[in-house]
Structure formats: C-alpha cells, structure tokens
C-alpha cells in the first residue's frame, strides 16, 4: 500500500432544519439528494446526503439537522471552508446565480485562483472555484443546468490548532504532497481529480466549538475494504488511535482525531448509494438499516417531513 488517499470522500456537518437545508443544497446549489436516512447513533435525527447524480466519492456533503441545536463557532480543529468546483466556464454563472438568490458573496483569490465565498443559512462556510479537472456532473435541477453544475469538491480549507502537525500528518500519513505556500495558507495535493486540494492555515488558530453551521468531520477515500483495513493499521502505527471499522451501510468507516483537533474519517468508495435504491430513485424514500426497520413507524413520527423543491425564482 502506498498510503496515498485520492482526496476527500465526504464532508459531514451540523445544521438545524431539514427543509432549509434541502432548499439551499438542492434548490440553490443544484445538488442531488442521494440518500435520506437517519443518524444511526441518534435515530430521531435525519442523515441527509447530497452529491452528484450518483453520490460519487468526492461529491458528497452530509448533514445532521438537529432542530434545537446550539449555534456553532467555526475555528481551529474544524474544516473552515468546504470548497466546491465547477466547470471553467461556469464561474460567472454562479456569481450571477448567487446574487439573484440573495446569497451574500465575497470574491477572493488564493494560489492564483478566484473563489466565491459564502455561507449557507446556518453559517456553514462554502466557496466555489472553477477548474478544468474532474468529471462533469450529469445532474440538473431547478435553475442549474448540467453544463454549469457543481462537479463535486475542489477541496477544503482546514483550520488547525497545530498547523505544523496537521501538515505533517497530511504528507506523512495521508500521502498528500505539499505544493505551495502563500500568505496565511499552505497547500497540499492528493492524487484524485476531485476533493484533492487542501489548504491549511500556517499560524495556530484558536479552537472553535461544534454546533449548527460547523463541520463535524472530513472523510478521506479508501478504494476498497482491503485497502481500508491497511489504512487502519497505518494510522495506528503512525501514533493515532483509529476506531474499529464501522459499517455505515454505504461505506465502511474509521475515525481518528489529528493533533490539530480535526476529526478525520477514512471511508471506502464502495458499496455506494445504489445498494438499497435504484439509481434513478436515489433519495426519494426514507431508507433505514435492517436493525431499525422494525421501528420505522416510531422513527417517522419523530422526523419532520420535508421535500426537495424547485425555488420560486427558478420556476
């Protein structure tokens, strides 16, 4: 095993409201709701997955909508910005679209690239960059045509309380390559075409705290179960304390916290989201693992209904 991840598998965040989240990530950003399930550790809470047409690794953002959760504060030990990548000719489309939908945007530059930075309704920080690499999305929804659609992740900005240690882990454990340093950030590159450029603050950052509008963890890709087991051994032998392998139905997972405070996951690419739904029906039904299926009526009663809908501005 070469101990090199292809990049980000998924990002998981806390929000407050399922309908508001669907309106933003499907309605505004044009992503597909690819799985509607529950938090296996708290079945009264949805676990919602949004991505490209198939929920391919490197495109998936997931949410736990806790309706009465506290507001989080983004800071050290968290993902600061989640970066989305769009086709090269789509940057102006997104600039105009976000303005039309009254999403406040700041345009900035980093490492020679232009970014549109904005927040979702809970304050989760996002940005859009245009790049040639990475497969195009085939999904279209509302006012977002497929040729302008978000491809998936471009990467992320990690906020670390110990940036030198986070940088060392990215290179010497996760297998990324340091490719530059500019101003407040160092840049690291993974081997994949999506979710492959990671920026880390170079100065120590004060810790944030979890809650609505913050990322819970960032997950990295393992190509299969065999490699995943090797990753667990590799992480442990590197001085970290990975969890046992956990079955998340659509991938297997291990978790560990790196020394800059950020919770890392390593997740398998297979089996994917079509294991319990037809590809054309993804996200349409509430899917429960078999051990929760006998409790479906009680679970449904605890969950607030919501729908994926086209925004009025796009009708």
Automatic annotation (TrEMBL):
Domain VOC: 7-131, 152-269
PROSITE patterns the UniProt entry points to: VOC
Database matches in Pfam families: Glyoxalase
InterPro entries the record matches: Extradiol_RC_dioxygenase, Glyas_Bleomycin-R_OHBP_Dase, Glyas_Fos-R_dOase_dom, VOC_core
CDD domains: PcpA_C_like (cd08347)
PANTHER family (alphabetical): RING-CLEAVING DIOXYGENASE MHQE-RELATED (PTHR36110:SF2)
Protein name (record): Glyoxalase family protein
């Amino acid at each position: 095993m070469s101990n090199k991840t292809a990049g980000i598998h998924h990002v998981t965040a806390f929000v407050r409201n399922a309908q508001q989240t669907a309106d933003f990530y499907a309605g505004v950003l044009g992503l597909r709701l690819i799985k509607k399930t529950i938090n296996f550790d708290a079945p009264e809470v949805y676990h919602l997955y949004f991505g490209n047409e198939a929920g391919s690794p490197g495109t998936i953002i997931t949410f736990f909508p806790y309706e009465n959760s506290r507001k989080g504060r983004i800071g050290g030990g968290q993902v600061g910005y989640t970066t989305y990548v769009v086709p090269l000719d789509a940057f102006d489309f997104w600039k105009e679209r976000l303005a039309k939908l009254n999403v406040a945007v700041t345009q900035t530059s980093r490492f020679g690239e232009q970014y549109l930075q904005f927040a979702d309704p809970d304050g989760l920080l996002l940005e859009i960059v245009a790049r040639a690499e990475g497969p195009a999305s085939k999904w279209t929804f509302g006012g977002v045509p497929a040729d302008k659609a978000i491809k998936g992740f471009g990467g992320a900005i990690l906020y670390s309380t110990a940036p030198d240690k986070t940088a060392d882990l990215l290179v010497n454990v996760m297998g990324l390559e340091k490719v530059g340093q500019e101003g407040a950030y160092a840049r690291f590159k993974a081997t994949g075409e999506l979710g492959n450029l990671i920026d880390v603050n170079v100065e120590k950052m004060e810790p944030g705290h979890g809650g609505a509008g913050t990322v819970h963890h960032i997950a990295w890709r393992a190509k299969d179960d065999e490699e995943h087991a090797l990753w667990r051994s590799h992480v442990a032998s590197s001085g970290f304390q990975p969890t046992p392998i956990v079955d998340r139905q659509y991938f297997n997972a291990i978790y560990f916290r790196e020394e800059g405070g950020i919770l890392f996951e390593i997740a398998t690419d297979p089996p994917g989201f079509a294991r319990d739904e037809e590809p054309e029906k993804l996200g349409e039904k509430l899917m429960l693992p078999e051990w929760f299926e006998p409790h479906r009526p009680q679970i449904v009663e605890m969950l607030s209904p919501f729908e994926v809908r086209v925004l009025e501005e796009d009708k």
